[in-house]
Design a protein that fits this description.
The protein has helices at 25-57, 68-77, 87-98, 105-118, 317-321, 323-333; strands at 127-130, 143-146, 158-159, 180-187, 190-193, 197-198, 205-210, 223-228, 236-240, 245-247, 308-314, 339-346, 349-357. The chain is an alpha+beta fold. Strands 2, 3, 4, 5 and 6 form a five-stranded antiparallel sheet that branches. A four-stranded mixed sheet has the order 1-11-12-13. Strand 12 (339-346) and strand 13 form a beta hairpin.
Amino acid sequence: MIYTRRTFQQLTAPGYFDYSAQQTEYDKKFNEWLNNMTAIIQDNINLMDSIFRLWASRSYALTTVTMTPWIKYLLVQNGIGWYNGLLSTAIKLLIYVTRSYPKSAVLCFQQYFTFLLDVGWITQAGQILFSSAQPAIFSETFLIYSDSVSPPSTPSPSTYTPLAWAAPSGWTIGASNATYYARGYISGGNIVWMAPLSVNTVFLMTDYAIIGDLPGSATTGTLATVADDGSGDVNAVYYWDGGAWRKTTGVNANQGLVIGQVPPVPGSSVWTPESDTYSSGVQPPVDGPSEGYGFYGIYGQLELKAKRIDILINLTADGVANLGLIIFLFRKIKPTLNSLYVSYTTPDNSEYTEIEIFDSGAV
């Protein structure tokens, strides 16, 4: 039943309002306003009638309902309305793009690999390579440890013998039970040791391209890697001693020794579970090769070391067909400060094709 409203004139007794042609302009506007108010009441009642009474009185037994228009609407709302693949894949795609992304870049990629496997666009989980274009290449690290219960004095310089120098008296190269550490640099054929710091000191390590990029000053204990310091080394480690930056790694001198090789480089190298970082945000296991200490001795705050992230994936035929969408989703999870390259194979080509993923501003 459609409700038809009564006008304000029909709702009032004769003689109260002037509805004649001689009514004042004020009366005319007042009556129009009251009539508009009753029109709103009519519209609301009829809307409720259409939604509830008529809906309840009709049979939908022979009606075919499809979710396609709604899924299409959601795809448009999420910026991927141009996707015209399978409805089941579209639903999984919407679940993926509307979920919360983890803060960790690695977890973002792993979550994405799970989605790509689920929809059949890759043959196996992708590989994540950090800093693959710049491994650390230098000969050794000048780092010694003490188990003193009180702050030890700065050790005297040590004679430098490449890959075979000895720690000063009272100090060791091994990290076991260490309470303090000291870093050194080469000067006049000796290793000059700098003031000891507690192994609990929290420090920051940052990447720089060249020596000239190092800041003019820093907090004592701050570490930096320099991708190219002019010596031929890659990612040599520098340390701010309170007055200057000191190189605390030995020049590789074309010996071909790369940190991380097996057998390990002799000297003062120590290790963490991560293969391409210099320190660890999580303390390494005490029974591991680092004896509980991170690379170069301690653990603390650490910026993501990788300037570049490489992803390797093997596409299926459906993955090739949806390569544009795969790239679109990579752009959404790309870390802002890192270069991201995706290399992929296709079913008819075993060689990898490399593409760079640029920022979308989504994250």
